[in-house]
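Section 5: illustrative case.
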């Protein structure tokens, strides 16, 4: 019953999310049909809006498919993954995006952070977090990645500067389609699925994820993973 209710809610939320870009594309097509052929500049503006909405829907559908696949996943191939190497690679991937807004990325990692896991899923997990840490940051801000380990677990804390979140918003950030600030999310093309995907991947690895934030201060997302063999939940 719980799964059925969850699927109904996902279908409802998905329909709602797709309604806006589809409506905007239909209106743009109507406008394009009534725009005079000689108004080339105006036509290009309309086509540009349609392209943006198409890309928005493409990202949304891709994230929905990713989350749906993770929800029904019952088995997962694991191998030893060095998160220090993975995170260092992601820093290089996001360096240009961060530099465009003068955001500094700092890594504080030991030589090795070894976990048993799925490399593709772990890369998606931390990529989603890094993407959010840069997108929802302030110009000239910072992103800090700290890794540490104990005999039983590996902990990675990714922090960023920015406007922060209100206390009542924090419990909902891992819900599918939840966006703390609608206008900001729409501006960056957010669908509200990134952290839901993060949570599911962490669950598949038998770990835990949490977020702390305050308005006008740092936002810190903590991922804890077992150093031993990954636990798979169906």
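Designed sequence:
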């Amino acid at each position: 019953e719980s799964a059925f209710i969850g699927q109904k809610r996902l279908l409802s939320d998905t329909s709602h999310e797709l309604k806006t870009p589809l409506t905007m594309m239909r209106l743009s097509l109507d406008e394009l049909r009534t725009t005079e052929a000689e108004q080339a500049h105006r036509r290009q503006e309309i086509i540009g809006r349609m392209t943006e909405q198409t890309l928005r829907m493409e990202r949304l559908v891709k994230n929905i498919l990713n989350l749906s696949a993770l929800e029904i996943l019952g088995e997962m191939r694991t191998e030893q993954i060095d998160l220090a190497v993975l995170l260092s690679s992601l820093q290089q991937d996001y360096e240009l995006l961060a530099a465009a807004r003068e955001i500094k990325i700092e890594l504080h990692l030991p030589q090795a952070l070894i976990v048993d896991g799925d490399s593709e899923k772990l890369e998606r997990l931390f990529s989603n977090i890094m993407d959010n840490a840069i997108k929802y940051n302030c110009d000239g801000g910072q992103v800090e990645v700290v890794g540490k380990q104990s005999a039983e677990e590996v902990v990675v804390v990714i922090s960023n500067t920015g406007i922060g979140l209100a206390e009542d918003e924090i419990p909902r950030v891992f819900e599918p389609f939840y966006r703390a600030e609608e206008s900001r999310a729409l501006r960056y093309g957010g669908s509200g699925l990134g952290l839901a995907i993060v949570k599911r991947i962490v669950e598949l690895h038998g770990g835990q994820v949490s977020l702390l934030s305050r308005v006008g201060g740092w936002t810190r997302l903590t991922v804890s993973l077992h150093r031993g063999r990954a636990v798979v939940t169906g």
